[in-house]
Amino acid sequence: MEILQLSKETIDTCVVRATEVLRAGGVILYPTDTLYGLGADALSDEAVAKVYDIKRRDELKPIHAIVADLEMAERYAEVNDEMRVLERELPKGKITFIVKKKNFNTGIMHGIETFGFRIPDNDFCIALARTFDGPITATSANKAEKVPERSIKAILAQLGDVTSDIDLVIDTGELPSQKPSTVVDMTGDRPLIVREGAIAAPELWNAIHDEY
To answer: A Gene Ontology CC term for this entry (predicted)?
Structure first.
């Protein structure tokens, strides 16, 4: 397992190395703007299977991804005007959209009709998504049903022997406690809040109503 320390001085090196690992079908452990996540090529069946194995996660439970911006998301899914409003008006990195996918059936979209994604408010994550030029899994780095830890040492201890399946660790120290993103299903006639997190429901509804 390779470990790189992330800082303002090393961000470019970390992005390049992480991109190499992702393109080779590997798995990275990396910091997002909420928790440390397990990153893999979100369109690769093999890479996504590794993430499920590391988490011991039920394969029927979908995994979401990060993308650099809505333009990237539109390659893979349907983006509507309400989503553009929410992305523009709400704090960055705080909302995960579930949307109807386009003609993809691999990786995190295999066997389902949706694509879940978040646009992070994190320089490393955005640079990584742009350099990799595609969606990257962003599921929290913890065993299924276990509370996510906020430091690399604690995460690796919780995951146990499956850490051998992680190719690269990007370590930026212990992350502060953060609320998870608010998950919004955009596949119906109107948005449906699946999980209320960093964005409270009234704030989301106000953003839409103020626009229309």
So the answer is: cytoplasm
